[in-house]
Design goal:
Layout (H helix, E strand, L loop, with lengths): L10 H6 L5 H7 L16 H16 L5 E2 L1 H9 L5 H15 L5 E2 L6 H6 L18 H5 L3 H19 L4 H7 L4 H10 L12
Parallel strand pairs: 1-2
Helix pairs in contact: 3-5, 4-10, 8-9, 9-10
Length: 198
């Protein structure tokens, strides 16, 4: 017989307080694995999200469900007190109500989840596009490519304005500092020397 047991409490503390039998603890404590909370392994969140989107799309008969970069950034900065179970419940709730060909946006997330990601403002700074951005330039881009380009441009311009200060840049763009750091990594905007030419 093989027994697999899991707990979100420290077994030694429970044994010391008399809430868990010491002999049972030593019978179970053969090979011990510690699974860190989701907030300590945020790099796994995109893969988990993709897996459960596919899982629940099949379960609910949905087709071609995607996640916007902004939504993924929000999912990456949440604390997830309920760990993977909370994340899967969030995805299941969204997919149960989604339609085919849907791109999941931040507004699709639950209010509690958006609050846990930090204060996000609604004001959007403007960016003046140079003459090089003729209509033909935009016509050759897909919508996601155009959104990524504009987002990268806005972030790089705000970074220049604030001499690379992440906190001030995040405040101007109405983002959390962590959310901006994720975008800096995604767009490889890691220093003033690496900022793109607008």
């Amino acid at each position: 017989m093989r027994v697999i047991a899991a707990t979100n409490a420290e077994p030694e503390d429970l044994v010391a307080s008399g809430k868990f039998r010491e002999d049972l603890y030593y019978r179970l404590n053969v090979i011990r694995l510690r699974v860190p909370p989701l907030r300590e392994r945020r790099s796994e969140i995109p893969a988990i999200v993709d897996y459960y989107i596919n899982h629940y799309s099949e379960k609910f008969g949905r087709r071609n469900i995607a996640v916007s970069p902004q939504t993924m950034d929000l999912l990456m900065v949440c604390d997830w007190p309920g760990n993977v179970r909370q994340l899967t419940n969030e995805i299941q709730r969204i997919l149960a109500r989604a339609e085919d060909e849907t791109v999941l946006m931040p507004d699709d997330l639950s209010a509690d989840l958006k609050r846990s990601a930090g204060p996000l403002g609604s004001s959007v700074p403007t960016v003046s596009l140079t003459a090089q951005h003729e209509p033909a330039f935009w016509e050759q881009l897909t919508l996601p490519e155009a959104v990524d380009y504009l987002e990268r441009l806005m972030i790089s311009e705000a970074l220049r304005k604030h001499n690379g200060n992440v906190s001030r840049t995040a405040r101007e763009l109405s983002m959390t500092r962590r959310g901006l750091q994720l975008k800096l990594a995604r767009y490889r905007l890691l220093s003033n020397r690496e900022l793109p030419t607008a």
